[in-house]
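A further point concerns the way the authors explain their paired sequence and structure data. An entry of this sort, consisting of the sequence and the corresponding backbone structure tokens, reads as follows:
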Amino acid sequence: MSNPVFERIQQDLSENDVVLYMKGTPMFPQCGFSAAVVQVLTGLGVKFKGIDILVDPSLREGVKQFTNWPTLPQLYVKGEFVGGCDIVREMAGNGELAALLKDKGVAFNG
């Protein structure tokens, strides 16, 4: 049985190197956790696609089911789930996020 929400997520991930499922938009984040991840990505100069899960309740729940991860925001790099806010901040702080971006061939200021 196909799941249209999972198909949409797969399409988002295949069309964009870096995807952030978040509350709000990169210009207007609607929660502090989403704002913090946007700040990390912007600080690294990473081009990313921010997708507002607040406009579609099925997407909001579908993303959580897709990764089996209960919280948002959720960051993906080249289709791979990286984590939520705390993980992204920790990875940025210790250099792991820059290393991951480099390993995956994603352009950034690093």
Remarks:
- The two ends are 43 Å apart (CA to CA).
- The chain has a mean pLDDT of 96.
- The longest helix spans residues 32-44.
- The chain is about 50% helix and 15% strand.
